[in-house]
Amino acid sequence: MNYEWEDSMGIRILASPAQMKSDLPDCFTQAAAMQVQNLHMQIEGYKPTPLVSLDALAEELGVKKIFVKDESKRFSLNAFKGLGGSYAMFRVLCEVLSLNPETTTLHDLLDSRYKDRLKETVFVTATDGNHGRGISWAGSIFGCQVHVYMPKGSAQARADAIRRAGPAEVIITDMNYDRTVEYAMEMSRKNGWHLIQDTTLEGYEKVPTWIIQGYLTMANEAREQLESLNEKPTHIFLQAGVGAMAGGILGYFANFYSQNKPIVTVVEPDTVNCIYRSVKANDGRIHSIEGDPFTIMAGLNCGTPCTITWPILRDYAEFYMACPDSVAAHGMRQYAAPKKGDEVIISGESGAVTMGAVSLLLSRPELLSAAKAMKLDRNSVILLFNTEGDTDPFSYEKIVKAYSN
Ligand SMILES: Cc1ncc(COP(=O)(O)O)c(C=O)c1O
């Protein structure tokens, strides 16, 4: 039975007890994570991102621990997304060169005998920013060409960051995100380029699966870091655009912990809550959000759930939250001006919404019954992923400063 809360800020929460109807796919397992991490570890500059424990905040909010996996420190990328793009491009290149991805090292791939083939290979993608930056960066690692298309309204700062990250040619289109994805696909067909898209399309699931597998590095690192502290997460809050990242990470933890899986909440912007709406419709199918919805959470502004991870999100998450932009802004400020003794974390709009959600859930009297339904209490060990830093620095400054004035 679904149950719904709505508070006066406009936060909506849907409870849909995990029913575990579908089998977990075997692509988001520990073994898959190890293979992926093995590639990432060979990239220059690799180190696990920090797992920050916000003890003063946890104390104030009445839980045991709040851990934040800080992906703003991922390589030089200020976001987690490059994990997915780099792994998927590696897999595509192994196919192009007929190499076995399980035994091929990065060093093997970069051997001089493949240099010309790599140079001729062209990747194309559509992005709101973070994914494109990762693809551009990976293009410089592999020595390939990259074309990036961005939806209308994309911040110039994000386009510039993609150009700086690597060889990408970047164009801001006059189309919305979904249309820009279709355009990137058209360009890939027309020119024989490799589409490297984090969204699933009809007949296009192999590359998105590799991209999602690429994200497992951060889940595996987080689990190992928690284990070294003798902790296990009881609750995970995952932000979602198409839900590829959230579904992959949930798949990993559900696989790893099996029946002892943490309670998982999927968090989306209220204007683009396609997963929330799809779960609420309760007919098992995905439901898209049409038109040009706006949210400051640019990375989460996606109207159609990812078909690979949708069954995992539907059957293995317990709660879904739809949050107005003010929740993301609150999370950014919470990270930027932490409680005394806690570390500062730089977090952008899409990265911070789960922090905003948790801190409001645990402090607003109106949401007490929802927090109780989630079994959030003194024994809770909460895990969040700060999926981006200040990827739009102008917006970051404005939002974080608005608080201190
Ligand atoms: C910073 C950030 N967080 C989270 C996400 C959500 O990822 P997904 O679209 O896989 O749900 C994105 C996607 O671009 C992102 O940029």
Provide a concise account of the structure shown.
This protein has 405 residues and is α/β, with parallel strands linked by helices. Helix content is 44%, strand content 14%.
Describe this structure in words.
This protein is α/β, with parallel strands linked by helices and 405 residues long. It folds into two domains: 3-76 and 216-404, Rossmann fold (3-Layer(aba) Sandwich); 82-197, Rossmann fold (3-Layer(aba) Sandwich). Helix content is 44%, strand content 14%. An eight-stranded mixed beta sheet has the order 1-2-11-10-9-12-4-3, sandwiched between helices. It has a four-stranded parallel beta sheet with strand order 7-6-5-8, sandwiched between helices. A hairpin with a 5-residue loop joins strand 1 (3-6) and strand 2. Helix 6 runs parallel beside helix 7 (156-165), helix 9 (206-228) packs across helix 10 (244-257) and helix 13 packs across helix 14 (349-361). The longest helix has 23 residues, at 206-228. It binds pyridoxal-5'-phosphate. Pyridoxal-5'-phosphate (PLP) binds next to helix 6, helix 10 and helix 14. Pyridoxal-5'-phosphate (PLP) is lined by residues 79, 81, 128, 130-131, 198, 239-246, 299-300, 302, 350-351, 387-388.
Distance between the termini: 45 Å
Strand content: 5-15%
Largest beta sheet, briefly? 8 strands, mixed
CATH class of the largest domain: Alpha Beta
User: Could you estimate the helical fraction of the residues in percent?
Assistant: 40-55%
